[in-house]
Structure formats: structure tokens, C-alpha cells
Amino acid sequence: MEYRCLDCHQLVLLRFGQIRLPYFAHQALASCQIFSDNESKEHVSGKYQLATYFTERGYQVELEQYLPKIKQRPDMMLLYPEKKQKFMIEYQCSPITIEYIKARNLGYQQMGLLVRWILGKPYQKKQLQDGTLAKFAQPIGANQIGICFWNTQKKQLFKIPWLKLDGQRSIKNYVKLKKLADLQIKQLVRQSKSFNIINNQLYQMHRSLWGIPWELHNFKHLTGGLKCSNTLALVQLYLFIEEQQRCTKDTLFDFTKTLPWYEFCSMDQGVVQRLWLDQVLSEWTNLKLVSWESNYWFLLREPTWFNHLDLKIMSLHQHNETLIGKDSGRIKYIN
Question: Could you tell me which residue ranges the Competence protein CoiA-like N-terminal domain spans (predicted)?
């Protein structure tokens, strides 16, 4: 496969050596700085593999094309002729700041160009923090956000959805319902000991945070992005609906935006917030907790609040399929 330099139009080849890292070089002698001499082996190999990967799938690939209007040089530009879609690929293997990502994305937006970030091997060696996930989260399918990775050994592009379940550290590890409930109750007991607005609000209503109904626990995976636990957010959303009695979609969305969210760099935060809200309302509808009628959301019933942990545990064992459903959300990789 051949690639030409967009600056001098000469042929560039990927060369390998026993001592030097793989690098792009001009076939003929020329003075051109289109390719960086400081790129790591992982970055150079991955970029070349991605170019091949997309070419084999019908895309026209242009490597390192300089965009003078915004003074940026994406790793590659893809054009899908049939749909006339053009978008940029940024292949990231090293740490990068939020400010830099936002600046890069803003430049592409000014030109009306879409951009997708793909993470290399260094980002796959460890459990990514939520702040890092928020940097690179982007749409990966219908009603789903997540992270894109490139595996240079398998030469495979794979996507991991960003989903959160309180008490479960990774979507790859399945936690049984009994253990999950125990972890979440312990977390709520610890949170009840601290002075916070939610705890005080519940206290005034003769309720407690640890005694919330099982329906308000986070037993199904929800889209990531919240700085607080999903359960705390669910309690606040429920109390808001209970107080308002009837809520429009816009009213609930406005309230959802007041919850603590991470800053997103590669997609609209509002899209994430609305997706999370839709997932919650869908689950609560299945549990017959809320209903949509005449352009309003309202509570169908008041779930059981508990004043004793033993009663709460007993209730879970007796009604777990009714309150939570038969599955607790085992998640697989998306290839």
C-alpha cells in the first residue's frame, strides 16, 4: 500500500529497523516535516495499521494532512465515497490534557468536520479513571457512548461502552445481586453518616438514605458520566418527581443537568445526560414506578421505604424478580 506526503506529494513508506523505531520516510530525498520524529513505536505502528484497516473497508485514507485554516494535522482523514462522509481520526497513545483535546475538537468543529479519538495500548494497560473516560467518550452505537481502542497485536478495533453500576468496578466482572445489594447498602450507610442535603431532606420526611426503596438502587447498568453514585442521583430524581407530582420531559431534563457531571470533551454533555435520563425512566416504567401520560411523567405508586435493614434484606429476597428483574445486566465487549 502506498501513501503520499500531502506537503511535497512524494511517496512515503513505513520503514522498520533493528535499532530505530518504525517510521515514515520519503522514498526520495526531500525536506519535509509532515511526520513527527518523536512518535513512539506504538503510535507509528498503530497509525499504519489503522490506515490499512479503514482502506480495506472502503474508506479513502489520507495520512497527516495539514489543515492550514486551523493549523492542525490529524493523524488521518477518512472519506467514505458512497455516503460522502469525511471525518478525522486522532490516534492517542500518550497522556493529554483536557484543554488540548478541547482545542483540537474545536478546530475541527470550526471546519464542520467530525472527529473520532482512538486510544492505543498505553491506555489499555490500566483501569481508566472516570475523568479520563469523559475526555474520550464518544458515540459508539445506537444510544450508547464509550471508548474506542486499537489493538496493535491483534490489529483489531474494539469499543467498550461506558456504563456504571454502583458496587461493580468493571463491566467485565459480574457481581451477583446479593453481593451487589450488600455493597450498595454499606455505601449508603456510610453516606448517611455525613451531613448532606439529601440526608437532611429525607430526615425531614422521616426517611433515611440507607432505607431507600429497592427500586431506587442502581441494579442496572446506566451510562457513565456522573461524579456521584447512580443511586444518589436516582434518589434525587425520584424526590423531585414526587415533589412536583407531574413533570414534563424538559423539566426532568433540566433537573438532570443540575446533578454533578464530568466535563465531556468529544461529545455534547447534554446528549449523555438525556441518554442517562431515558434509561432511568425506561427502567422505572418497567417496574411500574412511573408512567407517561398526556405529556407528563408522574409516579404510579409510592415504593416501600424501610426503617430496618433486616426488613429491607428480607424484602429483596422475597420480591427481587419483581423489583429488579431476572437479570442484573451482564455486559460484554462490543467488537
Answer: 2-35
